[in-house]
Amino acid sequence: MARIQGIGASGGVAAGRAWVASTRPSPGMLRRVPPERAGEEIGRLERAIGAAAAELEAIRQAAGDRLGPGHLYILDLGRLLLKDEMLIGEARRRIREEGLNAEWAVQAAVDHFARFFEALEDPYFRDRRLDIGHAGERILSHLAEGPRGNAGREPEEPAILVARDLTPADVAALSGGKILGFVTDLGGQTSHTAIMAQALGIPAVVGAGDASRRVSTGDRLLVDGRAGVVLLNPSAEEEEAYAAGLRPRREAPEEGRSPIPRPAVTRDGARVAILANIVNDQELDLLPLSGMDGVGLYRSEQLYFNRRDFPSEEEHYAGYLRLARATRPMAAIIRTLDLGGDRGFPPALRLGQPEEREPNPTLGVRGIRFSLERPDIFKRQLRAILRASAEGDLALMYPMVSSLEEVREAQALLEEAKAELREEGRPFNGAIRQGIMVETPAAALCADRLARHLDFFAVGTNDLTQYTLAVDRSNKGVADRYEPLHPAVLRLLHGVARAARSAGIPAIICGELAGDPKSALYLVGLGFRSLSMALAKAPAVRRAICRSELAQMEELAAAMLECESAREIRALTSGSRHGAGRGRAGARPAV
């Protein structure tokens, strides 16, 4: 027997024979296209895109009775990416300007964006990379003239699917009950593929390295989707050890099909706003289906990608106008430019010369620091946001703030922009709300002072954890020390929530913790009443909140604040008394 360790993506245990999916589509041999044939080759590309979109629509229709609207949106996102001008426009350009055939043009476009997004540690943009790759693979599969392989199809007998990667649509297409579970080489716990497996109740292990090469069709497998363990050709005794975990696979997906509780209200009547983190404009089309209460984080960085100059005011305005119209009457919060650090910075848009490199970009010119260094660029964005605010309830927030002086400088520039627009006779919301991203310890510790000058806080837990613990998440040598449950991080979060409450302003959580159902409960207990997350995370978080009581969440948070280590806190949140130390169930409420 061999043991393969991956990442548990969807709970449950499955045992059965392996069915190894064939290789994903490839661009094949390069074929040069003369200029006079470019139009014909672009036609081939467009037909393949149309066929891919039709295929995804058929999968969506077939999966409609098994998936709730909160998960169907993932399939809609796949269709919208097939119209993504950033991806498809790049492929067309490669055909026209470089003479590539359609297959190689698509692969070149995917690789182009994959290299950029792969360098970013921000999980939302990394998910964007995966989604673009999946869209490219589906187009390639329809451009291919030969056999398309068996990925996304089902075996004749019940089996465990093993593949290098699976798209969310591949998983949704597994409708005949023939797939007992699946294992993939790639992927993460928060990927759309993992979320789809959870919705359908399919035990799944992702990120399993070279599993698709180590396993052969017909091998006996046992998959533990909670522990992330795959046993290859286990003995009968080893399978029996897991027997207690086996249960009917159709038990879990009932949750995915059940109506999504709207709004998110605890059993004792506390309302929690569930907001959306918007990575790209395609997601705006999916907001009505998602049932979100608004947009807690609109990442304006998307306007800066794949270009050699800064966006014009009109380009900014067009994007924000679409946001305002897509979200009204709900509110939407726009984060001003936050590039640099682990989010990267396109070479052509760096502050200095293109060849200049910051020795420590995470602590360098990023967020509000860059905007204040370039007030001309910053005011261009502020003017566009103000103009769009005439069409909807928009708010803006400044990232990477570490001092009140930075807030005052940004607000002064906003007032200058307002004065200019008044003189020009352009309409805007003069009372537009302003907030900051609390993601530095300095901002968290001075939250009570900052709150006097702002309308809301939005806490970026990813960066706040990184800066508090002096841990570079992208450095494998210290990445295991990145601990969101560190007592210092929890105390900072508690202080921010308390400062916001004292000042009478909202406090939103925008980091990864907000989208985790277990973490969401203690965040509410700490005093946060607004959680902003990826659209796909909302259904599970809503259900967790609606099944809980605020009093219990506050009790848990108070006990966590009494703990002396992350180990104690994890033991407490897992329901274990071992190692709970000073954590006291009867401690006073957190806020």
Give an account of the 3D structure.
The protein has helices spanning 38-63, 69-81, 85-98, 102-118, 123-143, 168-172, 192-200, 211-214, 236-241, 253-257, 287-290, 313-327, 368-373, 375-388, 404-424, 441-445, 447-450, 461-469, 487-503, 517-526, 538-546, 550-561, 566-573, and strands at residues 2-5, 7-10, 13-20, 159-163, 179-184, 204-206, 220-224, 229-232, 264-265, 271-278, 295-299, 331-335, 393-398, 433-438, 456-459, 507-509, 530-533. With 591 residues, it is α/β, with parallel strands linked by helices. It has an 8-stranded mixed sheet with strand order 1-8-7-3-4-5-6-2, with helices on one face. An 8-stranded parallel barrel has the order 10-11-12-13-14-15-16-17, surrounded by 6 helices. The longest helix has 26 residues, at 38-63.
Task: List its traits.
591 residues; alpha/beta; Glucose Oxidase, domain 1; Enzyme I, Chain A, domain 2; TIM Barrel; eight-stranded mixed beta sheet; eight-stranded parallel β-barrel; disordered C terminus
Described by strand count, sense and barrel closure, the largest sheet is: 8 strands, mixed
DSSP strand tally: 17
Query: Would you tell me which CATH topology of the largest domain applies?
Result: TIM Barrel
Euclidean distance between termini CA atoms:
52 Å
Low-confidence spans: pLDDT under 50, at least 5 residues?
245-258, 351-355, 576-591
The helix tally amounts to 23
CATH architecture term of the largest domain = Alpha-Beta Barrel
Average pLDDT, rounded to a whole number, is 84
CATH superfamily of the largest domain: Phosphoenolpyruvate-binding domains
Strand content: 5-15%
Radius of gyration: 25 Å
Strands side by side in the biggest sheet: 1-8-7-3-4-5-6-2
Q: Which percent bin holds the helix content?
A: 40-55%
CATH class of the largest domain: Alpha Beta
List the domain count as a whole number.
3
Structural class comes to: alpha/beta
**Overall shape:** globular
